[in-house]
Amino acid sequence: MAQDNLPDQARLERLERRLQALEDAEAIRNLKARYAALCDKQYDADGIAMLLTEDAVWESPGLGRFEGREAIRGFFRGASGIFSFAIHYSLNGHMEVEGDQARARWYLFMPCTLAAGNQAMWRAGIDHETYARMHGVWMFRHKRFTPRRTGGRDQRFCHPACRHALHATVRRWALAELDAGRLSLDAIKIGLPATRALARRIESTPPHAE
Questions:
Q1: CB 57, CB 143: distance < 8 Å
Q2: Which helix (H) or strand (E) holds 158?
Q3: How far apart are CA 179 and CA 161, in angstroms?
Q4: What structural domains and CATH numbers belong to the chain?
């Protein structure tokens, strides 16, 4: 009699797995939406940190690489000094879930305003992300942004003056964070060229006489 129920049991298990996969995908979409909303809320650093695993990594070629929840929190505490306005559009998400691990690829379109000079620009590219289920909750484990700069011909998403303003803003932010002890030279060295140049300048500057 028990053998007669095996096909139904196997079918039920398949349905449960499919349902779990759908629920996991929806939870990750909601995680992504919460992250975007917190970024658009003047970069709520504490709120964003709550979405990350303890060993999370966040990186963007234009802004740097930060390892660990607290390092990422420190970056976002100063992010509104770089972008005074931003709206994060996450599009065309492709997701793969395997148990308590998942990965996804999203298109990012981000109209924004640079704090320096109040200059409008936009960023576009691909977000490559991995996630982990921690104590039943999905969280970001690794978030890497790859800017889109080519599309058959060279694409310039903002006037050179905008890019120079972005670099100048990042340099000012980095100096302020160094002075406050929230940023290290090692972190700057793996950032964008402007901040790497800043690190070289700092290292070559002789100490002031007391």
A1: yes
A2: none
A3: 27
A4: 6-157 (3.10.450.50)
pLDDT at residue 62 tops 70: yes
pLDDT at 184 over 60: yes
Find tokens 């039920």 and name the residue: 12
**Bridge partners (DSSP) listed for residue 114:** 83, 119
Residue 194: DSSP 8-state: H
Q: Which pLDDT score, from 0 to 100, does residue 166 have?
A: 67
| Beta carbons of 96 and 102 less than 8 angstroms apart | yes
Q: Which residue has the higher pLDDT, 120 or 36?
A: 36
Q: Give the strand pairing for 89-98 and 101-114.
A: antiparallel
Residue 207 is classified by DSSP as: P
Farthest-apart Cα atoms in the chain, separation: 91
C-alpha neighbours within 13 Å on the C-beta side of residue 40? 13
pTM over 0.85: no
| Four-residue CA torsion sign, 27, 14, 142, 82 | negative
Q: How far apart are CA 140 and CA 132, in angstroms?
A: 7
